[in-house]
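Summary for the steering committee. The consortium agreed at its last meeting that each partner would contribute one worked example illustrating the joint modelling workflow. Our contribution is presented below. We chose a case with several input lines so that the handling of multiple components could be demonstrated. No manual editing was applied between input and output; the record is shown as generated.
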Amino acid sequence: MTADADNPEFGPVVAPDPGMRAAAEARQLQLTKPPGSLGRLERIGNWIAACQGQCPPKLLERPRVVVFAGDHGIARHGVSAFPSEVTAQMVANFLAGGAAVNALARTAGATVRVVDIAVDADTDERVSDHKVRRSSGSIDREDALSEDEVRAAIAAGRAIADEEVDSGADILIAGEMGIGNTTPATVLIAALTDTEPVAAVGRGTGIDDAAWCRKTAAVRDALRRARPVLADPVALLRVAGGADFAAMAAFLAQAAVRRTPVVIDGVVVTAAALVAERLAPGAGDWWIASHRSPEPAHSLALKHLRLEPPLLEFEMRLGEGSGALTALPLVHAAVATLAEMATFGDAGVSGSSDT
Amino acid sequence: MTADADNPEFGPVVAPDPGMRAAAEARQLQLTKPPGSLGRLERIGNWIAACQGQCPPKLLERPRVVVFAGDHGIARHGVSAFPSEVTAQMVANFLAGGAAVNALARTAGATVRVVDIAVDADTDERVSDHKVRRSSGSIDREDALSEDEVRAAIAAGRAIADEEVDSGADILIAGEMGIGNTTPATVLIAALTDTEPVAAVGRGTGIDDAAWCRKTAAVRDALRRARPVLADPVALLRVAGGADFAAMAAFLAQAAVRRTPVVIDGVVVTAAALVAERLAPGAGDWWIASHRSPEPAHSLALKHLRLEPPLLEFEMRLGEGSGALTALPLVHAAVATLAEMATFGDAGVSGSSDT
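What follows is the complete predicted structure of the assembly.
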């Protein structure tokens, strides 16, 4: 790894092109529909035009989902309804095409890449080239990662974003799989939004009251360890995140540096996004929120990132990028109307009597 | 037209299969995801399985949009921001593929049929075989239709539903185009939900305050004419609807009779749906609401039909079926996950520790 790749600093984020957004707003008024009548679809289309720096925008032809898989030491302490072995089993399920992310990607016209960042098992060589370590430290009592590991994970996430953008991805989704990962997600969000554990901890994949109490205690203990490093996003990922979180945060930051829009998924990805905004200020201008999960921390993070309201309110809480993939066709619809509709002039349709 | 085709009575509506819904609920628990974690997508998928009478459900391969075009006499009285000639111009735009409905249908994998039910102009022969008349009476002062016309319009809507189902449509959308049509829509909804005009009238395609006052007065006058026939849905369509409304209501009723699910669009289609539920009680079990428009009457009708919450809250107010087409991919996503995901057993993934 070169010194440059190992540097956790990100290049500057340029905002989506405001001139092209204005051009898109003007074009919306010429399309054969009453002004503003496509509502939120118009705003999404205008944003994509600004991201692409062209109006009308191109249809999105290469949406790409990257699923970041990693285990978490905290899962040994009874914070999840599922055992850690499920992480590796689900990686195999992704590769076999049998998971929600696969079905949803086929439907939405996206392709799926799986990367093992920190699965606590040996996985298929097709997914392990960016592996940083097995699992992460139990963040209620120890750092998730060493200094070298957090830098390696950030380098991995950045490299993955670069690989995808260089391969032509025109919209990106980060997904995740990792038993126990809503616990560090909740810690990162509670830390960065200054929220008490009881107001942030949810039911994850479906835990009972006793597990909720254990999870809340773990979040409290991890928060105590996280607060001293709050001002340093790399240290925060090292102490209270994990290799998968560091890679996702870097992926989201680098996507913005590379001027590529991202559809943000659920609580775990949004936690990484909160840190990414610290790594690369302004990155959030390149993101749209897909859905609101029942995890209280998700709403806290969306609000903090000014990504409300999300596109959907479907009570989804699966992860894998499933919420973002479900919402992706809404972005396609927005782009299609802006790119393909006829103007009043082209179609010979009379305009509104006040214009 | 045979006596049978001219009979405004509808066959019985059989509810979507409750046994198949239960089978789908059971299957959801076997798929490789935490129980319930796909949230609303699971309920949509289960509903489609019940509609199809099979689990896992088939992917929806022939979604079909039928756009019902018709003019309204009330449009002469300053209730719209656009002149009536736009209805025929937009029919031409639909046929040329340049309207929102065309762009959205391409994106969502649907095909579009346009039918001129009552356009106040001569239209292309490809769309005029079900034409009932030119325009409809100005409902603030006269009946929209004669007895013969309302029966012909109902027969047209029913025949169109039959044609589409017989041609293999597996999910249907009614769309509409007609300058002035939010006025009769508001009258029908205010009448059937017992609402005062000021609480029901919205801005339609974007009218100013003076036009809003004219529209509210027209709704008030039409409501006075509608109330005596409230108990008779055919008479209500004749007095206060229009040929396009009668055809849409019949289309929606017949789709349910033919056991075909429908994604419901905005305020105009939902007004027709309110009447359709009177024509064929139980029809609403075959419908899902796509979005909530800013028209107050739309929310009134969705609530009355127990179709809340709609899938999207995007402030769309275009019509044409645009809201339903924007939401259609969400139904595809729901079906794809239920139909294509692997089970825990198939994938060798461990279940939750409490099961």
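Chain B touches chain A through 65 residues (CB under 8 Å). Strands of chain B lie at 63-70, 111-118, 171-177, 262-264, 287-289.
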